[in-house]
Design brief:
It is built from no helices and 9 strands. By secondary structure, it is mostly beta strands. Strand 1 and strand 2 form a beta hairpin.
Length: about 110
């Protein structure tokens, strides 16, 4: 087991556009990567798409998040969640001029 107290997640550099904190960095036997992620607002023209192996689960905590899956956009609000195949090109941005904060679990 590993306990990560509020504010003690390990800051990691996964994508230059987002802030990631690994919530299981001290657990060597993990089969998932749980992160707290903060995504800033940006213009649609500035979206950066990425894809990777695995599956991803996002659970919204604060703000509003626009998530693009290929050419479709969806808006998530606190309490909303999405599960996706991470090989689908995806891009994220905070809305309303504010950051979006969410729990992101990657398998």
């Amino acid at each position: 087991y590993a306990i990560t107290r509020k504010g003690e997640g390990l800051s990691v550099q996964r994508r230059k556009d987002y802030d990631y904190w690994n919530l299981a960095a001290r657990f060597d036997a993990r089969r998932m990567e749980p992160f707290l992620v903060r995504v800033p607002p940006k213009e649609e023209k500035d979206l950066s798409f990425n894809n990777h192996k695995g599956q991803e689960f996002i659970y919204m905590l604060e703000g509003r998040l626009e998530i693009w899956l290929d050419d479709k956009a969806f808006v998530l609000e606190p309490g909303d969640s999405i599960v996706l195949d991470s090989q689908i090109p995806h891009a994220l941005r905070g809305l309303d001029g504010k950051d979006a904060l969410f729990l992101d679990v990657i398998l």
